[in-house]
Amino acid sequence: MERGVVIGLLGLGTVGSGVVQIVKNHQQELQHKVGCQVSVGKILVRDKSKHRDLDIDEDQLTVEVEDVVHNPDIDVVIEVMGGVNQAREYIIQALQNKKHVVTANKDLMALYGAELLSVAAENGCDLFYEASVAGGIPVLRGMAEGLASDRITQMMGIVNGTTNYILTKMEQDGRDYEDVLREAQELGFAESDPTADVEGLDAARKIAILANLGFSMNVELEDVLVRGITTITTEDMEYCKQLGYSLKLIGLASRTEGRVELTVQPMLLPHSHPLASVQDEYNAVYVYGEAVGETMFYGPGAGSLPTATAVVSDLVTVVKNLRLGVNGQMTARPLYDKQLKTDKEVESKYFMRLQVRDETGTFDTLTALFAKEDVSFERLLQWPLENEKEPMAEVVLITHETNRAVYEKIYRELENMDVVLNVKSSYRVEGGQA
Amino acid sequence: MERGVVIGLLGLGTVGSGVVQIVKNHQQELQHKVGCQVSVGKILVRDKSKHRDLDIDEDQLTVEVEDVVHNPDIDVVIEVMGGVNQAREYIIQALQNKKHVVTANKDLMALYGAELLSVAAENGCDLFYEASVAGGIPVLRGMAEGLASDRITQMMGIVNGTTNYILTKMEQDGRDYEDVLREAQELGFAESDPTADVEGLDAARKIAILANLGFSMNVELEDVLVRGITTITTEDMEYCKQLGYSLKLIGLASRTEGRVELTVQPMLLPHSHPLASVQDEYNAVYVYGEAVGETMFYGPGAGSLPTATAVVSDLVTVVKNLRLGVNGQMTARPLYDKQLKTDKEVESKYFMRLQVRDETGTFDTLTALFAKEDVSFERLLQWPLENEKEPMAEVVLITHETNRAVYEKIYRELENMDVVLNVKSSYRVEGGQA
After folding, report:
1. Which residue of B has its CA nearest to A315?
2. In chain B, which residues fall in CATH 3.30.70.260?
3. Which residue out of B206, B248, B341, B349 is catalytically annotated?
4. Environment class of residue A196 by beta-carbon count within 10 Å: exposed (0-12), middle (13-18) or buried (19+)?
5. Quick check: is B424 catalytic?
6. Which residues of B are annotated as a binding site for NADP(+)?
7. What fold does the segment set A343-429 form as a domain?
8. Between chains, do A274 and B298 touch, taking CB under 8 Å as contact?
9. C or N: which end of chain A has fewer Cβ atoms within 10 Å?
10. In angstroms, rounded to a whole number, what is the distance separating the alpha carbons of residues A137 and A193?
11. Testing the interface with B: which of A34, A145, A155, A287 to mutate, by most B Cβ within 10 A?
């Protein structure tokens, strides 16, 4: 270990550059923490001639992956190239060459996390991935170690900065979705193709990773029921606000008696809920443990240096393990088999907004439908709407707790009811009463 | 390790009982995490005959400390007895007998942390103390490991649940300090002698522990400038609220170019600040790192099971280290010498409320005093007060950034000014503009 630890990078984009900067600028602290020098060796890039504003020698750059994953001088490989298939292949090669791996790749970990962790264990290597969820927030470590002795029953995360930025602006300024999305794209908070963010897919990957770790279980990405934010209107936002709720895109993983639910969808949270005040592009993960109760981890979900902080913190753990000779020894295999909740087991409250014919008996017909299914109301408001053709009214309601199967039955019946002109919107309500 | 790991407890009060419960109820998860059985051996108590609602054998209880700290069957000693001198002595004995130690004792760690960590290192033992700050929130671990690669420049904590409960109720319900304190005492949120909490001493201990860890420096409890909440009035609360701020008891540790400031005092935080929405008895620690930016750790600051969760999570780390044979090897000694900021180096904004004679020139006299010291205003409001004897006005102001030396000079001059009848209150303002 006298020569110190040498890391190789796969990729030198936003996060990779941040890693190079931190390793250089915080060298003194790093050495103090791990007791030896940590330096950057070879870096895999696509184009060696591209100008980079970093203090690296040209001969550190390579276009051959072998120079990193087969390089005997390299102890730890940091994968920050993104993508799935190639990254997976390179990481497996690195592990098979007994290199420890740190990755920031959420797509990869959501799809192949179990496989890669098992390859790491077989090869006596560490594989850490803190940066794959909620960027700079040390939430995986917080759960795996800080709450090690607890039994986690629920995780709720604002784990996508783009959508939280959009919803925050919609809520604060009363602007509509398209308008804020355009602004977010101009400011660089949203991609030119925002699909993965606004449709909830990105958040789904993170919730799958969180669930695997927090519930000690192998869930798949397809187990996550996903719904995005593209149909949220300014009216929805305004009603939620008036009722004392914030509408947020929430990734939720909950466990009851060994059976789990995984979903990403817009949810109403009361203003008093810790997640409700998470603004703009910030991320936060709310964790409920049987013993500890409510905890929350808050911070930047993306960005070069924040994400690189998480990567280098994983690196610190790897280097400590290296010095102690204990890498790859404590990877815990899943304790539980995957068991998903059925729709009947998924309990929650719902917010619904409807437009109905404003005529005698409408209200009764509506409430009778809910009563038939044994669903009662926490809030129920109706008022007339301006309309030239026929008298119309708007109804906004929040149900008491019911299960998804029953709610969806009611929803379908409402859509087919003669007195109901339009079911405008419907969202889950979590986190208690406003 | 076949026989598993046996822990001994010093104390069986609120936290100790929680530890016994968690070790029993979460045994399956614990075994899965550490790969061996973890059981409770001897427990030091004051009175063996006291009735306890716990599943323990009577012969586990002892009144002799030797049965725990000299017991060859015990691997890890958990100190949850509280107090300073005796706890210190017992922990040193345990460490000298090569027992690893987990403590929840903030008083002890604030006063003798450096000494105890050094005894632990000499004896090749682990000494962990996550539960000593912010109960169930894994903030020490989050900083030491999750932000391991970063350079922390500021920590701000709501680290005392009693005072946060009192201030929350004062803010929400417009009730006065004495009234809420009485209620908090009835509900068990405040001690019958609340001095350590309401005068900020408890928070000072925690901020000293946080600073030692976060800044890698040995600070002393007496380096913390402390001011409590006992003089906060409902008027102060109301003005702060109207100006867009929350008044919170904040423990602050900040570092600029190697020089640190440590203080506990009521501070105004803009409503948008993550700490401003921490309500009731909850705790939160806001950490600013050069690379990661803003992060926050939120959760329960006290309570039997939350605090015990932190203790048992430390225990999990000790047991993992035991199995790997790496205890006591990575205790980092302080990297930096202590250098405290002078009053001239402590920069911040201030809120002030004054009662003045309502006569021509008063306003000018006041503003001239601030101008002379080069301090400008972010907000400045004046309005007449009902008063029979002479015309009076109230002035509320928020300064722009200045240093503590200058501000205190102004404060003293104001107190001696003829036009100033009363300096009603004065608080620091942190966390940006409302």
Report:
1. B149
2. 344-429
3. B206
4. middle
5. no
6. 10-17
7. Alpha-Beta Plaits (3.30.70)
8. yes
9. N
10. 26
11. A145
Q: How far apart are CA B303 and CA B284, in angstroms?
A: 15
The per-residue pLDDT for B1 is 47
Helices A161-173 and A234-242, axial angle in degrees (round to 10): 70
Helix (H/G/I), strand (E/B), else coil: B4: coil
pLDDT of residue A388: 76
CATH number of A5-136+304-324: 3.40.50.720
Which part of chain A is CATH 3.30.70.260? Answer: 343-429
Please list, in sequence order, all residues whose beta carbon lies within 8 angstroms of the beta carbon of residue B350, skipping any fewer than 6 positions away: B398, B399, B402, B407, B426, B427, B428, B429
Specify the pLDDT at position A29.
84
Task: Compute how many other C-beta atoms are within 10 angstroms of the C-beta atom of residue B1.
Answer: 13
CATH of B139-300 among 1.10.3090.10, 3.30.360.10, 3.40.50.300, 3.30.70.3090: 3.30.360.10
- Residue B331: its pLDDT value, please? 63
pLDDT band at residue A1 under the 50/70/90 scheme? very low
Helices (H), B139-255: 139-141, 161-173, 177-187, 195-198, 201-215, 234-242
Determine which one of A42, A206, A248, A341 is catalytic.
Answer: A206
Question: Residue A230's CB: how many other CB atoms inside 10 A?
Answer: 16
Residue A214 exposure: Cα atoms within 13 Å on the Cβ side: 30
Q: What tens digit of pLDDT does each residue of B42-91 get?
A: 999 999 988 888 889 999 999 999 999 999 999 999 999 999 999 999 99
Task: Tell me the average pLDDT across B106-117.
Answer: 96
Ranges for all domains in chain A classified under CATH 3.30.360.10 = 139-300
Please state the ipTM of this predicted complex.
Answer: 0.91
Task: List residues forming the annotated binding site of A for NADP(+).
Answer: 10-17
Phi-psi category of residue B255: left, alpha or beta, with phi > 0 → left and psi -120 to 50 → alpha: beta
What confidence category does residue A330 fall into, taking pLDDT thresholds of 50, 70 and 90?
Answer: low
pLDDT for res A393? 93
Tokens of A127: 């594989």
The strand pairing partners of A213, in sequence order, are none
* Residues carrying CATH 3.40.50.720, chain B: 5-135+304-324
Closest partner residue to B272 (CB to CB) among A18, A28, A279 is: A279
| B338 half-sphere exposure, CB direction, 13 A CA radius | 17
CA distance A412 to chain B (A): 39
Closest CA to B160 of B197, B191, B207: B197
User: Poorest-confidence range of A84-93, A210-219, A375-384, B331-340?
Assistant: B331-340
Whole-number Å distance between alpha carbons of A194 and A15:
20
Mean pLDDT, rounded, of chain B: 94
CATH 3.30.460.10 fits B5-135+304-324, yes or no: no
Neighbours of B256 (CB within 10 A): 13
CATH class of the domain whose range is B344-429? alpha beta
